[in-house]
Design a protein that fits this description.
The chain crosses the membrane at residues 27-47, 59-78, 84-103, 115-136, 156-175, 202-229, 241-258, 270-290. Helices cover 75% and strands 0% of the residues. It has 13 helices and no strands.
Length: 296
């Protein structure tokens, strides 16, 4: 189809043979990708600032694992309450983030301790997911796409679910951008300027957990968006969070939509979940950062 035909369908041409495909399949899938890209990119940007770790990412340090364990529990153990998936995943993500922060704390935090605490926490939580798969093997089919990370079969219902969390998380992040800039000056400088450093760290962790959990509850365990996008955005606009956050949001949309497109057309008619594409891109990028920063 050409662009003119697509636009005519979007603006109300219901007579086209492609109306159902565009309006009920492609458009909601694209909108879900937009909001998930925004949420994961902002979550990673906030975590990297709070934890002062260039490799912090909801997936790598274990925040996603908390959301994944709680989300999988809802899908397998309490399927009748699946409508509570987002708030339950948020509780899991927040608990995981706080646990990692506490484990890494020793008169401050360091990149090495955060990575080690995140890996240990993630391994522990993932073992819980594996146990659920063992005990509820008869229900596992519905949770497979959740653990891989996929935009397949997303509907307007998914769009309606994620929109409120995306708007709230985006507004909270943008309104707190200046305080993040102050926090990055260091504890001594921040406190001298009157900032409650620990209070705002917990605040940013909560906002990051909300953003990550809302995305994960819709598309599953999608990793590396929050790692790649903030670094690319910093190279483009610098470290001022007032600019970095909106730039990361826009770049997150671009990266996720492009990755989903690649997954759909690279091996057509077989569709690769977007989580696999992001893993192929993100794992080498993580190793590159690990070598460049010499963090461990």
């Amino acid at each position: 189809m050409d662009v003119r035909s697509i636009l005519s369908i979007l603006f109300g041409n219901t007579s086209s043979d492609y109306y159902t495909i565009i309006w009920n399949i492609r458009l909601p899938r694209t909108l879900v990708a937009v909001f998930v890209g925004i949420n994961l990119a902002l979550s990673g940007t906030l975590l990297q600032g709070v934890m002062r770790n260039p490799m912090a990412d909801p997936h790598i340090i274990g925040v996603s694992s908390g959301a994944g364990l709680f989300g999988t529990t809802m899908l397998l153990v309490f399927p009748a309450f699946s409508h509570l998936l987002v708030p339950v995943a948020f509780v899991g993500a927040l608990a995981s983030a706080l646990l990692i922060y506490l484990l890494a704390w020793d008169r401050g935090v360091s990149p090495m301790r955060i990575i080690l605490a995140g890996v240990a926490t993630s391994a522990f939580l993932n073992s819980g997911v594996s146990a659920l798969y063992t005990f509820y093997s008869d229900r596992i089919q519905g949770a497979v796409s959740f653990m891989v990370g996929s935009l397949s079969a997303k509907s307007w219902g998914h769009v309606e679910t994620i929109i409120p969390y995306s708007i709230i998380g985006l507004l909270l992040a943008l309104l707190s951008a200046q305080r993040m800039n102050v926090l990055l000056l260091g504890d001594s400088e921040s406190k001298s300027l009157g900032l409650n450093t620990e209070g705002y760290r917990l605040w940013f962790i909560a906002v990051s957990a909300l953003l990550a959990a809302s995305a994960i509850s819709i598309v599953g365990m999608l990793g590396f968006v929050g790692l790649i996008v903030p670094h690319a955005a910093r190279m483009l606009v610098g470290n001022d969070y007032r600019i970095l956050l909106p730039a990361s949001a826009l770049l997150g949309v671009t990266v996720l939509c492009l990755s989903d497109t690649i997954g759909r057309i690279a091996f057509a008619p077989i569709e690769l979940p977007v989580g696999i594409i992001m893993g192929v891109i993100g794992a080498p990028f993580f190793l590159y950062l690990l070598r460049k920063k010499r963090t461990l």
